[in-house]
Structure formats: structure tokens, C-alpha cells
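Human: I'm a chemist; would you kindly supply sequence and C-alpha cells for a protein?

Assistant:
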Amino acid sequence: MAGQGALEQASTNHIEIPVYGNVADQPRQQSQRPEDEEDETFDYSQRTQWLRAAVLGANDGLVSVASLMMGVGAVKQDVKAMLLAGFAGLVAGACSMAIGEFVSVYTQYDIEVSQMKRDEMRTNGAATENAQEAKKKKLQLPNPAQAAVASAIAFSIGAVVPLLGAAFISEHKVRLAVVVVLATVALVVFGGVGARLGRTSMMKSCARVLVGGWMAMAITFGLTKLIGSGGLEM
């Protein structure tokens, strides 16, 4: 009896330690980090609206004003003429971007409201409460004023880069080179920021933005130089 009691006590205190044949068989829950779970569950398409307004606004401001200043610099060596043209482009572009974004988002909102009303009429109000609540939340996402302000600010931030670069350079050719270099660096930064926030390819995003900016500046400079050399007085 004493031997049997000792055997029962030993089996009660017995602890089994699982042994895995290789590392791949081990549980993976412990190695998964919280940020990895967040990346898997987060819907990055929710960032589309403000990301498009901010990144594209900054890119448009940079390319538009830099191209405008390159065009003026192709026929005028005066730094004042370049700065005035760039500043006018900044103000006009920021207003245009804000108005355009406001109208675009508001139009999208009106279309979604009209579609929701048509769906309710088609179903005779038979939609579930959860479906109606989901549609109302979807309608709350577009914010025309927020998108307009974001576009105007982003455009201004991008447009300031070439303006600051040209403001302190008196030599004409050096001024043009500085504008191109600063625009190139800023384009890479804007493309990288957009790719990082949207979890897209960094290389492809930067390449698209950079090539597009170079083409815009080169075409504007070349055509303005051509027109200026054709006898048109500036």
C-alpha cells in the first residue's frame, strides 16, 4: 500500500514537457508581434482620401511651381521675375487645389447619398439596421472641408521648396540647378512618404513621382526657351 501511494503521488506530480522535432512545429503565436497583428488587420484603404489629398497636393505644388520657375528662368535671368512667378503659382495653385478637392469630395458625397436613397426605395425600407448604420458611417467619411484644407496646405508646402531654393541664389545658372536639385530631393521624399503610409512599393512610387517631375520641368523649360528664342519679347 505504501508503494502504491508513492506511485500515485509521483504520477500526480508528473509534468509533461512537449518536445518538437523542429522549430517549424513550435507554436507561432508567441513570436507574433503586436505590430504585425495590426498590419494584418488594418485596412490601409481607409487612408486613401487624406493620403491622396496630402501627398498629391504636395507633389503638385512642387512640380507646378518648380516647372513655372524653370520656364521663367529659361528666358529671364532676373531672380525677382522667377520669385514672383513662383509665388503667383503658389497662391493660384493652392486655391485651385482647395476648390477642386472640395467640389470633388462633395460631389462624391452627394452621389453616395442619392445611391443610398435609391437603395432604400428599391428595398422598400427592408434593409437591416446594421446595413443602414454601415451606410451612415460610410457617408461620414468624406469631409470636403478637411480635404480642401489638406490639399491647399500640402500644395503650399511643396511649392515653398523651389521658392526658398531660388531666393538666395543670385547666379542664374546656379539658381536653375539648385531648383532642379531641390525639386528632385523633395520628389523622392514625397514619393517615399506616400509609399510608406500606403504600404506600397517604395521604389516604384519614388520612380513614378521623380520621372514625372523631371518631365514636367524639362518640357516647360524647353518650350518656353523655344518660344523665347523665336523672337517673342518678354
Summary: Helices lie at 2-12, 34-41, 48-75, 79-123, 129-140, 144-167, 172-198, 202-229. Confidence is low (pLDDT under 50) at residues 23-31.
